[in-house]
Fold each of these.
Amino acid sequence: MDLSFMARTNAPGPYYGTVHITDIGPVGGGQLVVQKYLEVTLTAPVAVGNNDVQVNPTPWADTVVSTTSTDIDSQTVAVTARIGFTESFKGSAEITIGVNGDLTSQSFDETVKVTADR
């Protein structure tokens, strides 16, 4: 299921920056409901690892992050971050993705898509 959200690049620089994702919920409004996982896809200038993705669910929930990165070209990588929930979840969440690359060269926050398994 596609979700609505806000994504913005924080503190972009030539060596490091973050993509911050907030206000995640169903299109048309309502509370975020996840049965097993959220999935975030985006393009980035470099690969993103599991430890580069920070999840802040409210109420707190146990999560496990698994990322894959696939080169598109020499300056762009397709990133998928699957955020698994150990139990079904209802609430809100913020996601911060740290990128060890130049986020000033493109609008990477415009490539973000968030989906849930519900």
Amino acid sequence: MIVKKLLVFILCLLPIMSLPSKEINNDSFSKEETMKETRILISGGGIAGFTLAYWLKQRGYSPIIIEKHPCLREGGYKVDVRGTALEVAK
């Protein structure tokens, strides 16, 4: 069961990390291009971490995902959207 989940995890990760990064013109030193030369560390290998990595990679950044848990979990954390959190979500 763990091997199957690990395989699914790897198959989800490979398409994201194999996306080509945007080429950067070294002749120009604009702030936008300089920022894209920077690697970005993402803490957490959940859906939010992988989504962030995907979109950063699409925009030419080099994301690196780290996760403290040594193995995959059965499920995720529940999200409570009530009270103030509901107002923020709106």
Amino acid sequence: MKKKVLPALIASLIASPVFATELPLQLNGFLTVGAAKSDNDAVSYSTSINDKVSFENDTRAGFQITFDASNDLSFVAQFIAEAESLGGEESWDNRADWVYGQFQLTDDVLVRGGRLRMPIFLMSDYLEVGYGLPWIRPPAEVYSQIPWEAYEGVDLLWFSQLGNLDILFQPLVGTVKQDIPIAGLPAKFRVDDAYGMNFSIASEHLTLRAGYVQGDITLEARAFGALNTVIGYEELYWLGEGTPQNSENRIALGLLANGATPSDLVDSSGTTPRPSALLKAALPYQASIEGTGKFLGLGAQYDDGHWLVLGEWTQRKVSNSPQIADTTGWYTTLGYRFGNLMPHITYAKLTTDEKDAPTLIANDQKSITAGIRYELDDAVSLKFEWQRTEASNDSIGRFYDSGYSYQVVTDVQSGNNPADTDNRAVNAKADLISIALDVVF
């Protein structure tokens, strides 16, 4: 791919069958082998990039099966195996990204139903296919704002043309059910009554895209029992007298609703609930939050075969949920191709919209990435990147201090003050070095 990195070209590469067959069946695949290392030996970035060379964050393999039942009806399934690490525990995440059927209603209208990828980012259609991306990993300041990859539902793709412009309108409805990790503990994430749309306009060199999704969010996690307490404790610490009792009462009521007893919520003197006693009580209990989530994404890409310019602006809002921050993220990327070689640079930023948001839910972060992509073949690329990333505004960004999480639990179980524990992820900085080989076949 010496020139354009366009969705149509990537789709055609992936859609080329691995083997010839007279049956209406195609099997295709993709592979990324990536390694990364950080210069920060105190914290991890994205849970798995630390001061040791790690393959967990950027290594994945996938294959896609397409079965054409007739000229109008077909079925598609895409499966992913992805290395991951959380809190030092390494494993493989195996999942089905796509499992759906599609029917061609007319020449211009396609209906799909099943498990589909949410089309809210510029790169949503091929986000897991490393070969289709200019970077080794997409900017976390934008792409980490949504914790799910897919939804179960239906969408409609309406294609049209206006002069030399290709137009796509894609409404969707469905639900999301997914297990995600929060603070090293399992959590169940659900979005009910979700609806949204994707709208794009593309010419020969320019693509403009807008995506929106809204739904009723429910998130259940043991971590939230503790997080509610930590948030209340930080309010006590920041706002002074007057707020602590309200915060503690709110947390205590939540714990009681999830199975705690009154004796669980008091300190050793048996009197008023204390932050350390509440945090200790919260650890064994499943807590849940509910709210209405809204996500808006705008993106643009210009690619004339030499210059590559792209950027996205995204905003996440969740009502009635202090545990999930409202955020705004954006990035811009500039690259230029010299034959098979493309150097590129990206600046990205994520900000928490609420002022004085508790440290543990604030995600403020900024990064600058410089990289080189080399095309070894029409379906093989080699990438090298340097990235400087920094959590800002007293937040933890995408950094993770496993020692802090362990020490907080140890402190409260022993009756010590958890505020005395230093979270090294707050305002952390790191230089990351990454290399990856991408293949489609």
